[in-house]
């Protein structure tokens, strides 16, 4: 579109910040710089020693773990997650993936990683939504860290009910044997980063890690979340 038309278009239909609803500048995408500054960042730069890592290490033998934002009900992170998960905002997932990769670019996780693996959605749910939001996050991360994404080796074998209303033990029973691995050779000896949108107790991502660790020789698994529940 010629610049003059796009300027006119923005004059009459300004693009608004997803969070504060103020008009965005030309350089800003989706979220204004002021809101980006106010997001609840975790500061989990020590990827082998932080609150999330300690939460997960009792459940699976993961190497490192980190998350970009804290997730609080009705908070800014929840608004972002809803937009990328339930309102079809794929671009936001890619953008946050890129931001997250820049935020963690000097961490040991970056230098150790060989491949990114998104936590798989069940195919039916992915078809309904049109995309897997964790895969979109991976695309953002991959574009900055220059890493491959593997979307086929780890897959969801059994459909699970939606997780939100179940108790911990029910969820745990429900998730056993949900994930399986194909193409074991491709992952052999690799350090993979499992990527998810929101990590709550960490059960889902640890079941993914377990599936990989129990089937692929020499694999190492780390975890990266867009957000973690405090
Ligand atoms: Zn804003």
CATH topology name = Rossmann fold
What binds here, in terms of ligands, is:
zinc ion
Number of helical elements: 11
Morphology call? globular
Terminus-to-terminus distance: 44 Å
- Total of domains: 1
Low-confidence stretches: none
How would you characterize the largest beta sheet? 4 strands, parallel
Radius of gyration: 18 Å
What is the total tally of β strands?
Answer: 6
The succession of helices and strands, N to C, reads HHHEHHHEHHEHEHEHE
Helical fraction: 40-55%
CATH class: Alpha Beta
Itemize the secondary structure elements and their pairings.
Elements: H1 3-12, H2 33-38, H3 51-57, E1 65-71, H4 76-86, H5 90-103, H6 108-112, E2 115-118, H7 123-129, H8 133-145, E3 154-156, H9 168-175, E4 179-181, H10 184-187, E5 191-199, H11 203-215, E6 220-229
Parallel strand pairs: 1-6, 2-5, 5-6
Antiparallel strand pairs: 3-4
Helix pairs in contact: 4-5, 5-8
This protein binds zinc ion.
Description:
- The radius of gyration is 18 Å and the shape is globular.
- Helix 11 (203-215) links the parallel strand 5 (191-199) and strand 6 (220-229).
- The protein has 230 residues and is α/β, with parallel strands linked by helices.
- It has helices at residues 3-12, 33-38, 51-57, 76-86, 90-103, 108-112, 123-129, 133-145, 168-175, 184-187, 203-215; strands at residues 65-71, 115-118, 154-156, 179-181, 191-199, 220-229.
- Helices cover 43% and strands 16% of the residues.
- The N and C termini lie far apart (44 Å).
- It has one domain (39-229): Rossmann fold (3-Layer(aba) Sandwich).
- Helix 4 packs across helix 5 (90-103) and helix 5 crosses helix 8 (133-145).
- The chain has a 4-stranded parallel beta sheet, with helices on both faces. Strands 3-4 form a two-stranded antiparallel ribbon.
- Bound molecules: zinc ion.
- Residues 17, 19-20, 22, 31-32, 34-35 line the site of zinc ion.
């Amino acid at each position: 579109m010629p610049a003059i038309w796009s300027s006119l278009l923005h004059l009459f239909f300004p693009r608004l910040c997803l969070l504060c609803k103020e008009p965005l500048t030309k350089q800003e995408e989706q979220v204004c710089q002021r809101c980006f500054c106010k997001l609840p960042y975790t500061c989990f730069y020590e990827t082998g020693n932080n609150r999330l890592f300690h939460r997960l290490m009792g459940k699976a033998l993961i190497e490192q773990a980190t998350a970009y934002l804290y997730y609080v009900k009705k908070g800014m992170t929840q608004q972002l997650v809803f937009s990328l998960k339930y309102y079809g905002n794929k671009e936001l997932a890619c953008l946050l993936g890129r931001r997250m990769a820049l935020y963690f670019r000097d961490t040991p996780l970056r230098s150790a990683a060989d491949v990114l693996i998104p936590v798989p959605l069940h195919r039916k749910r992915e078809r309904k939504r049109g995309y897997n939001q964790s895969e979109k996050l991976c695309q953002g991360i991959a574009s900055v860290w220059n890493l491959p994404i593997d979307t086929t080796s780890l897959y969801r074998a059994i459909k699970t009910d939606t997780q939100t209303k179940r108790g911990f033990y029910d969820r745990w029973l429900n998730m056993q044997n949900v994930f399986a691995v194909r193409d074991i050779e491709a992952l052999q000896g690799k350090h993979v980063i499992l990527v998810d949108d929101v990590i709550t107790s960490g059960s889902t991502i640890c079941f993914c890690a377990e599936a990989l660790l129990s089937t692929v020789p020499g694999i190492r698994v780390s975890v990266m979340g867009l957000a973690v529940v405090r």
